[in-house]
Write a structure and sequence with these properties.
- The protein has about 100 residues and is mainly alpha-helical.
- It has one domain.
- Helices cover about 45% and strands about 10% of the residues.
- The protein contains five helices and two strands, in the order H-E-H-E-H-H-H.
- Strands 1-2 form a two-stranded antiparallel sheet.
- It is globular and about 35 Å long.
């Protein structure tokens, strides 16, 4: 059964398949580009935005989703979906001193 967050993403994206394998039904939302941050409330809000959330099946979540190649591919997917300018704006709002720049 998909999580509540995954269901919202499925509706928003009009897609119910895993965004890693593209075959299996998605069940979870994965904090793809940056891990969720439970200690930093300001970061937590930005990290929980749709720009950072990837629909994944349980197998991909545990096996594939955390790999760097998936993060780069997901960044490109999000740029195609939302536009590169919007993704860069989201990236700038992250309250971190050091940010991954390879995505950009």
């Amino acid at each position: 059964m998909p999580t509540e967050t995954a269901l919202k993403l499925m509706q928003e994206r009009n897609n119910s398949l895993c965004e890693c394998c593209g075959v299996t039904p998605a069940e979870e939302a994965h904090h793809c580009l940056y891990r969720r941050d439970l200690k930093n409330k300001a970061a937590g809000k930005v990290l929980n935005e749709t720009y950072n959330l990837q629909l994944v099946c349980k197998e991909c979540h545990s096996r594939v989703a955390k790999h760097h190649a998936n993060k780069v591919r997901f960044w490109r997917m999000q740029c195609a979906r939302y536009g590169k300018d919007r993704m860069l704006d989201w990236h700038k709002r992250l309250p971190y001193k050091v940010k991954e720049m390879e995505y950009c």
